[in-house]
Structure formats: C-alpha cells, structure tokens
Design a protein that fits this description.
59 residues; 88% helix; mainly alpha
Length: 59
C-alpha cells in the first residue's frame, strides 16, 4: 500500500514542478503582451487538481 502513496506523492511533486514552469512561462507571455487567459485557466485547473490530490496523499 505504501508504494501507491509513494507514487501519488511523486506525481504531486512532479505536478508542482510543472506548475512552477507554467508560471514562469505565463510571466514571459505577459511581458511580451501576449494573451494568457487560456494558459491561466489551465494553470488554475492544475492547481485545483493538486489541491484535490494532496490531502489524500498525506493522509
């Protein structure tokens, strides 16, 4: 059972890294005055998914 939790924890950590990269890319787009609405929505969905999974993985 511990292996399953370890896998979930590693996936959450990976998703957090992806979110960090996405935030950096968003900043670059905003500086270039390129629309970021859809990218911001994607980032929010990613954050929501992490928030939903994280409490379960730490329980």
């Amino acid at each position: 059972m511990s292996r399953g939790f370890d896998y979930i924890r590693s996936e959450i950590a990976f998703m957090r890294i992806q979110v960090s990269r996405q935030r950096k890319e968003l900043l670059l787009l905003q500086r270039a005055e390129i629309g970021t609405t859809s990218a911001e929505a994607l980032l929010q969905r990613m954050l929501t998914k992490i928030d939903t999974c994280a409490p379960r993985a730490t329980a």
